[in-house]
Amino acid sequence: MTTLFLATTGGHLEQLNDLAARIPGTGPRLWVTHANEQSRSLLADREVEFVPYVRVRNVPDVLRCVPRAHRMWRRYGVTRAVSTGSGIALGYLPYLASRGVECHYVESVARVTGPSLTGRVLHHVPSIRRYTQHTRWSGPRWQFAGSVFDSYRAVAPGIADRCTGPVLRVVVSVGTAAEFPFTRLVRALIPILSPGGELARYTGRTVQVLWQTGCTPVESPAVTPVPFLPAHELAAALRSAHLVICHAGAGSVLGALAAGRHPVLAVRRSREGEAGDDHQSQLAAELARRGVATVLDPEEITAARLVATLDHDVDRPDSPPAFGLAS
């Protein structure tokens, strides 16, 4: 069995990488995604086909995927396909399903109360098996086989206590979506995190910040932006960080949790042009309910509130449960 793993970059690819390791089965594996620092680094040791970016809600981009789907089906003998979206799934899964390929679509964990537009469209392709990562809306049409947040648990306050020494290391990650900058978060953090800023004064420590800014423009001389960081470098920075502040995107959250960090999450607002819809608020609320993150609007973030999260961490068993695909 040759399995094609398909996802756009960012959080969708992070989720698929997590779930793929938990899907039983042997045989060749082919990864299909877009090329950037994250995907090249994350998939460096795997068979990969990099394909053109599929823009949000762009029908011509979706249609241009079909000839490539045909070529890969013939060249690699694809017999199974698994995707976490987003729009790229529309260009590949229906065609592959029409060729008899066993197709599975796993809705993003960010969709807490119902499917995305991609999921709603694929709902009308009966041969595609569909999964939700939340039991609250699972049922005959959307199965629950697990979640990328399986087994993450909060470490009780007072146990972590890892903030010692003269330097306070901070990672800020605003995601990589090309269409939606998150200027509001960056502007709110500059006076808090800049050299000699509010956090430095509050703690009496030197504050070192890695700003992973994606497509968000940054003009302040107090910030050294890094638009995109290879996956292994970002993971290392997260593991060594005392504080992680990020948008409430699934990929950024997964990176923080995998590093054992309890992130401070800022939610993007559609009315501010920061997202296509407001699903991040649902994901943030779910993570806060689980006790593995703190949710603050950018305008609510202060040095005192950041310091209050320092004795919270996250733990996870070495072997999360299998993600069983339907037969």
TrEMBL record:
Keywords: Transferase. It comes from Pseudonocardia ammonioxydans. The keyword Cell membrane does not apply. Signal peptide: none annotated. This is UDP-N-acetylglucosamine:LPS N-acetylglucosamine transferase. GO terms for molecular function: hexosyltransferase activity. The lineage of its organism: Bacteria, Bacillati, Actinomycetota, Actinomycetes, Pseudonocardiales. InterPro entries: Glyco_trans_28_C. The keyword Transcription does not apply. Residues 221-318 form the Glycosyl transferase family 28 C-terminal domain.
